[in-house]
Amino acid sequence: MFSTCIFCHASLGTNPVIEAFPVGRRLAFDPARGRLWVVCTHCERWNLSPLDERWEAIDDCERRFRATRLRMSTDNIGLARIADGMTLVRIGQPLRPELAAWRYGDQFGRRRRFRVAQAGVGVTAVGATLAGGAAVGVGVGGIAFAVTQWGRALLYGSPSAIVARIPIGNGIVAPVRRADLDRLAVRGGTNATDWALCVRYAASQNNTPPVELEGEAAQRAAAMLLPVVNRFGGSRVQIAEAVRVLEEAVTPLGVFALTVRQQDHALVLPLPVPVRLALEMAAHEERERRALEGELAELEREWREAEEIAEIADSLLLPTRVDEVLGGMRHRVEPTGT
């Protein structure tokens, strides 16, 4: 088993994940052709592994690729990040894209549990403060109002707090306050698939209409603002319904256009929780897709080069006579039985 790149001679590193092949931090595998490469992290070249070391490792890579929570696929390349920062590149017919509820369940469920805990802390603090004020003869009404306001700020956040800074064009970065989220809206465009995100920001006046963002600017802003809108996360039932909404839209960004068509209003906050969660899922799915798109294209180009080398290398290991027999078998026409 080799440990250095055959091209630049740098160390390929090790991984504690694939027991049958503990070399490399990025492995590329083709389960159909039985090929396994170690991708050098220094020169990005693909090192073909020896024949006798591939099969068990390929099976392990396939199992882990299917089980991973984060993977992206094009027609020929699949990319998955697994434990310990290791990356698997799957060559061949991609797996059917899935949107499993467990991918987002942990994230949204954690938010929900955190806010419930915050609410509990706020209620306890209110009770303790009221009891202490009553004990020393302080007016309970004034204390109750102040503590209630503090508890509300703890749970919902300060309305004047800046929650995001959104690029809106012409080099302007708009600070968005929590209170501005009340006016966050999705609007339709000329075509059924078009949509725009309407954002009010701190520097705008009350009589100034929100700025309308489209395309990549809208996608970027949605990915930044929707997690703040969905600060309370969601229950398992709500997350499952959000996944259904996302699947109904076919493509991630289609959720925004679908929302405009199906809802009576375009303001985001009044939307049902599953719809808001689906919008956040869609925004992040699209960002991940675009982030990996360039990398996948480069991987496909490298794979095609490496595949040509692999085919030559594997054929060199077979005697000429075996190659001739295999070629004859491919062209032989067997008689059909009666």
Notable traits:
elongated, alpha+beta, 3-stranded antiparallel sheet, 6-stranded mixed sheet, 338 residues, 11 strands, 8 helices
Give the helices and strands, then pairings.
Elements lengths: L25 E5 L4 E5 L6 E3 L6 H13 L3 E3 L3 E5 L5 E5 L9 H35 L4 H17 L5 E8 L2 E6 L7 E4 L6 E5 L11 E3 L1 H15 L6 H13 L5 H9 L10 H44 L3 H12 L7
Parallel strand pairs: 1-6
Antiparallel strand pairs: 1-2, 2-3, 4-5, 5-6, 7-8, 9-10, 10-11
Helix pairs in contact: 2-3, 2-5, 4-7, 5-7, 6-7
Shape type: elongated
Strand/helix succession:
EEEHEEEHHEEEEEHHHHH
**Spatial sequence of strands, sheet with the most strands:** 3-2-1-6-5-4
Poorly predicted segments: 96-100
Task: Give Rg in angstroms.
Answer: 28 Å
Amount of beta strand: 15-25%
Largest sheet: 6 strands, mixed
Structural class: alpha+beta
- The number of E-state strands comes to 11
Share of helix, binned: 40-55%
Average pLDDT metric: 76
State the end-to-end CA separation: 51 Å
Would you summarize the structure shown here?
Among the domains are: 1-98, no CATH class; 159-288, no CATH class. The protein has eight helices and eleven strands. It has helices at 55-67, 101-135, 140-156, 215-229, 236-248, 254-262, 273-316, 320-331, and strands spanning 26-30, 35-39, 46-48, 71-73, 77-81, 87-91, 162-169, 172-177, 185-188, 195-199, 211-213.
What does this protein structure show overall?
- It is built from eight helices and eleven strands.
- By secondary structure, it is of the alpha+beta class.
- Among the domains are: 98 residues, no CATH class; 130 residues, no CATH class.
- The protein is elongated, with a radius of gyration of 28 Å.
- The chain starts with 25 loop residues before the first strand and ends in a 7-residue tail after the last helix.
- About 1% of the residues have low confidence.
